[in-house]
Design brief:
The chain is α+β, with helices and mostly antiparallel strands. The protein contains eight helices and five strands; from the N terminus they run ααααααβββββαα. 55% of the residues lie in helices and 16% in strands. It has a five-stranded antiparallel beta sheet. A hairpin with a 6-residue loop joins strand 2 and strand 3.
Length: 212
């Protein structure tokens, strides 16, 4: 990040200027949170438009583009595969990543279209470690329903970009939940292809009435 590059240049000249790891971590958390705020607002405002309300595939395409900006879907997918990644061929890995991303984006889009009056509030998170990881804590509010805690685990990649690698919804990790399910399927069938086929089947299901 530019701020850190500038800091590294100034420290040798002005040795008395320094930021603590906690201060850098707080700065990182603020930057990561801004990414989630911007992405959520973009999705909310865009999917309100009738052209998206009436065309599920168009909505999916839009959301897919936004998700690609704030999430590392390759990392999410490979974390979900867990130990089974060692059993997968390069072709299986790529097919799994593609189908799993499609499933998540379609599910994500459907949720946004279904809950039109949702809003998000952000909770403080004290991050004392400047380790390239942080957590963005949010609550999703819907009329006449209890708020849902949705927390985003984020990682600073080599390009200096904050990316989501796991989402914790109501205390349940998306990565852990899917990994358990897929591990059970692979253990039962002995095949990663069976999981990929399940994903393909789900992704090819007709769009529910009212979402096309």
């Amino acid at each position: 990040m530019f701020h850190r590059q500038l800091l590294s240049l100034l420290i040798p000249l002005f040795g008395f200027i320094a930021l603590s790891p906690a201060a850098l971590a707080a700065e990182d958390t603020a930057q990561a949170r801004q990414i989630i705020e911007n992405s959520s607002e973009q999705i909310k405002q865009t999917l309100k438009q009738s052209v998206y309300q009436d065309d599920f595939n168009k909505s999916v395409q839009f959301v897919d583009g936004i998700v690609a900006q704030f999430a590392d879907m390759s990392k999410v997918s490979l974390l979900v595969l867990g130990k089974n990644i060692r059993k997968a061929t390069p072709d299986q890995r790529q097919r799994f990543i593609k189908e799993f991303q499609t499933l998540l984006v379609r599910t994500y889009t459907r949720a946004f279209l279904e809950y039109k009056d949702w809003s998000i509030t952000y909770s403080p998170y004290k991050d004392d470690k400047d380790d390239g990881r942080t957590l963005v804590k949010t609550q999703v509010h819907q009329p006449r329903q209890q708020p849902i805690d949705v927390n985003y685990r984020m990682l600073l990649n080599k390009q200096g970009e904050w990316k989501v690698y796991d989402i914790i919804i109501g205390g349940i990790s998306l990565v852990t939940n899917y990994r358990t399910s897929f591990n059970e399927e692979i253990a039962k069938t002995g095949s990663i292809d069976s999981v990929i086929q399940q994903l393909i089947d789900k992704n090819n299901k007709p769009v529910p009435k009212g979402e096309s």
